[in-house]
Amino acid sequence: MSAFCTHLGCNLSSFDGLVLDDGDIHCGCHGSTFAPDGSVVNGPATTPLHHLRATVDADGELLVDTKVSVSADERTPG
């Protein structure tokens, strides 16, 4: 998932951002809470976190394309 809150784009991986409590992801900027799957638990965010395309290359390196969001169908492991 993207590390940026869908409310105003705060970086969830900053010191005040990504705080895991009972599996939920809290935004330290304005208090939005997201479930582990990225769905909104409470706002002010109204849009779920974006899921990003991830692949593994021939060397076993994980590659994440931060410019491509994927749908729920594409998130299901094959």
- Helix coverage percent: under 10%
Main sheet overview:
4 strands, antiparallel
Low-confidence spans: pLDDT under 50, at least 5 residues?
none
Distance between the termini: 18 Å
Radius of gyration: 13 Å
Structural class of the secondary elements?
mainly beta
Work out the helix count. Answer: 1
Strand content: 25-35%
Strand order of the largest sheet: 1-2-3-4
Q: What's the overall average pLDDT, rounded? A: 83
Please trace the helix and strand order, writing H or E for each element: EEEEEEH
Please provide the count of β strands.
Answer: 6
Q: Name the shape in a single word.
A: elongated
Keywords:
single chain, 78 residues, mainly beta, four-stranded antiparallel beta sheet, two-stranded antiparallel ribbon, 1 helix, 5% helix
Give an overview in words.
The protein is built from one helix and six strands, in the order E-E-E-E-E-E-H. It is mainly beta and 78 residues long. The protein has a four-stranded antiparallel sheet with strand order 1-2-3-4, with no helix packed on it. A two-stranded antiparallel ribbon has the order 5-6. A hairpin with a 2-residue loop joins strand 1 and strand 2 (24-26). It is elongated and about 40 Å long. The model has no long low-confidence stretch (mean pLDDT 83).
